[in-house]
Amino acid sequence: MLQELELTCMFWLGRFSPTLRVAKFHGFHFPNSIAQLSLKFPCLKQLTLKKVVISEDVLQSMLSGCSALESLELKESRGISRLCISSQTLRSLGFFVDWWNGSNHIFLQELVIEDAPCLERLLPLNSTGSKVVMRIICAPKLEIFGMLLSEVIPEFQLGSSIIQEGVAVSLTTKMHTMRVLALSSTGPNLDAVVNFLKCFPCLERLYAIFRLPSYDPGEYMNARKYDPLDPIECLELHLKKVVLKNYVGSKTSYIDFARFFVLNTKGLEEMKITLRYHRQHGWFSHQLSQLRVTSRASRDARIEMRCGTNDDFTHNRDAHDFSMGDPFDLPSSGCSACEEEGLGDAVYQI
């Protein structure tokens, strides 16, 4: 009995569809006529569509026949401009938009989670600036979200809360199940991050990944001050871990970004800061002195800083892998320059 199949053609699909548990379709065109076949995949739990051309009607027809589907990955596929997810069994959804192929192809521009009562993970897999409107209407068990490109999402909607390109229009709906959030931006855009924190009051872990832009965006004006009269619940009660990747401490905006969480996260247990480039011991000492503040909210928080490599987490995520409670909690790659200097995995902490 065939249970796992990877196809580059459609010939055997119908014959084995009743027994498949894992299916991977790579590099071919789904004809629109398939939407009329009412294919059934009653045992299918994992579905991957990579570099395929498929219309929304065909995909919805396939998904409607997957009554046991738990995880779905869409990678570099075309033909769908709007995807609406309504599934009683789906636990994990990952998607990678093939945005660089140009305007001659139809690619995903809007994702709607309409009714997904079992969805736990929503993983936008892109590490670059693809623009997808995202709307979460009903996902009462969603716990892990990322990597979200905070400042280039044209619109993010959570119930009646709306954030447009990082700017809050309305923040009335909150999701109390969310515990892990990964955000990416071209710089330390604190205002955009805080807007998302307000949507997820019970957040426990925050990953902020700073991407290297093709131009120098200058300094972000991170002048935001924490207002105790307008508290952010996750900073007051729940946030325990903050990870900053590809940190550029020579810019004031990066230091201000890190200090905001040191000063205001009352339950903070650890902050991990990884640099994009190799630095000398003296540079670390100066940087850590900027974070060694007497008024820090959590006296026992462990703050560490280390050299690393440009990391965007692309290789860390798999929508089908439920073995890790946090798919972003993986060791940082070591710094080759530190190893050459005999420092090994040099870690500086306060």
TrEMBL record:
It comes from Triticum turgidum subsp. durum (Durum wheat). Residues 228-273 form the FBD domain. This is FBD domain-containing protein. Pfam families: FBD, LRR_At5g56370. Residues 17-207 form the F-box/LRR-repeat protein 15/At3g58940/PEG3-like LRR domain. InterPro entries: F-box_dom-containing, FBD, LRR_dom_sf, LRR_FXL15/At3g58940/PEG3-like. PANTHER family: FBD DOMAIN-CONTAINING PROTEIN (PTHR32141:SF126), PTHR32141.
